[in-house]
Every structure is written in structure tokens, then in C-alpha cells.
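Fold it.
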Amino acid sequence: MPVAVAGLAANGANIIVTVLLARLLSNQGYGAFAQLVGLFLVVSMPGSAVIVAVVRRTASWRTAGSHVALATWAVRMHRRMAWLVGAYLLMVGAASVPLAALLAKPSPIAVAAMLSGAGLWVALCVDRGFLQGTRGYRSLANNLLIEGGVRTVAVLGLALAFKLPGAALGVLVAEIATALHARRASHAALRSVTDDGMSVTPPSIRRDLVVDLIAALVALTLMAVLQNVDVILLGRLNPSEAGSYAAVSVACKALVFAAIVLGGYLLPEAAISYHEGNHALKQLAATLSMLAAPALVLVLLATFFPDQVLRLVFSARYLGAEAAFAPLAWAMAALSVTVVLTMYLLAHGQRWVVMLLGVGAIAAVVSINAADGSPTATANADLVVQAVLAVACTAGLVIVHIRNHGIEPPSVLEPGAPE
């Protein structure tokens, strides 16, 4: 519950920031900020994959009682991540000017700040993975609140003074504060237990970390495509309606971010239960139940009050695509279910879900492209694909549990056991 409440609060703060920026910035400035947010999401995507991999390794080690080995590995991970972030920031400094010229709208300062913030977010995901794997849910909730609170104050405050560059700098300030808190909290969580059952990392664990990371990265990239392909294609096919559709999209896709946050609770619970030879269907049901409330509110508002909501939140100049509001709300509710089920399946080592997401992404591109830029047709096409994908993921989950009923899954290798 702390994670759910903090996640909803942080996402609510992000929505408020997005809405107020639409009023603080010009139409061109708001469009440029949307571009920068897209860059942030693309660059930060590996962070979510890092969380999946770190949680699975942390859960396996803790199940085996290898807490000192886990703490040693954490120090090594932090050292390597520091070098990677340093090299990445140098690359950002070199690429910000040509990238700003390529985008034609944002300033180099805004590009550099947003990309730097994305890199720091990937780094802090290592610590969020340790918090989730050690069930430090209160610390994770506090970290989410810090990110949402500092981002709200910094982005709006700096945007008032410096417009678009200030908004981007606000994101960077928020990620710095969040990363510092996450590091301190993860150190405390990893020091909480000191007994040790194993002093070295089995070779299979090292290999599985890479496989988990790659599988999660591909899965999350495909989910990002499923979440944003409609906006990208409609903006190319029908630029005049892009702003109106973007307003509808922002309202609906906040639900997907809520699903990702709630996955921060489900992922470690599912991974820990898997290594203990159990399932986490109760936790899965709890996660879906907590997601159902905001989904129901969104669908009702989109169905019965689309004009009023968009006019109140974004102002009348963003009207024009309100007919797409209801089908897109249903589509994102279906995608949220897919996100939660994917987290659960990845935590149980079921990597076939990546192929299913790939088929769904291809179907979404083809069907949305066939809508030819019509907002309503685009949302309807997206709804069909997302609904079928959610049903397919649910069926796959049921089949997996039927097949594995009564079969204890493999856990971490015992000390001295062969590979």
C-alpha cells in the first residue's frame, strides 16, 4: 500500500506538472518539451530492465542466505554504474548541440539536462532494484515521493524563470535528489542482514543476470512502443491533429505509468515466491485490484465527460480529438494489464512473453498506420490490438500455472553444487 499510494501521488504530480506546463509554455515550447520527454523515456528504458535483473538476482541470493555476497556484488555494481554514468555524461555534453539542431526546437541546455536526467534515472534504478529485492517498500515509497515532489517544485519553479530550459533543468535536479536518496536507502537495506550462506557468485547467476537484463530490456522497449506508437504515427500522418491527440494521450497513458509503479511491488514478490517454489497470484490480484480504481475513473470520465475534462485540464485550444478519448482510455487500461502480467512473468523467468509483445507491437504499427492519421480510428485500432494482447498474456499466465502446478521451480544453486 505505501508503494501504491506513493506511486499514485507521484504520477498525479507528474500530470499536474504536464498540465501546468501546457499553460506556462507556448505551443511550440510545449511541443519541444514533449519531444524531450520522449527522449527521456527512450534513454531511461534500460533502467526498468536493470530493476528486473537486479530484483531476480537479489531474490535468489536472499533465498539462499547469501547476504554478504549480495552486499559485495552491490558495491561492484555501484562502482561500474558510476563509470558508465560518467562516460555517458561526457557523450551527452558532446552530442547536445547537434541533437538540438536535429530536433530544431529545444535549446542545447534543455537537451543536455533532460538526457543527463535520464542517465541518472538508469543509475538510481540499481538502488530501486535492491530496495525491491529486499522488500524495502517504505523506502521505495519515500523515494517515489521525493522524485514526484522535487520534480513538481523544480520543474515549475525553473520553468517560470527560464521557460523550456528551466523545465528540463528541473527534471535533472529531481533525478539528482532521487538518486542520492535511493543510494542511501539501498545501503541501509543491504546492511540490515549480515549472515552469509555463500561467499562467491555461481557462474550460472552471472549468465542469468545478462539474460534477464536482455529479456527485460527487449520487453520494456516493446511495451514503450505499444504505449507511444499511436502518438508517433499520428504526428507523422496528421500533424494538425497531433497536439489535440497528445492531450488525450497524456490523460490516458498516466495509467500505464501507474501500472509500472505498482509493478515495483509485484516484481520482487513474484521473484521471491518463485525462488521459494511458490506462486504470487495473491499479490498479482492485489496489484490488479489497486490498478482497477484509477482505470475505472479514467474510463468513466473519458466516456461521459471527454470535452469537459480536456477543456478543464488542457484548455479549449487542445480540443479536437475528444472522440478518441474513450477508446484510448480502454486501450491503456488493457495495456496496463499487459504491463502487470509481463512483470509477473519476467519475475518467474517466463521469457516467451517477449515474443508475444513483439507480435503485438508489429500489429499495433500496422493497424495504426492503416488508420491514416484519424484520431478516432487510431484510438480504435490501438484498442483492438491492446485488448487482444491483454487476453493473450492472461491465457499464457493461466497455461503456465496449470503446467507448473505442483512442480517446484529451480532456485539458486546451493553452495558447492555443480552448474
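The chain has a mean pLDDT of 80.
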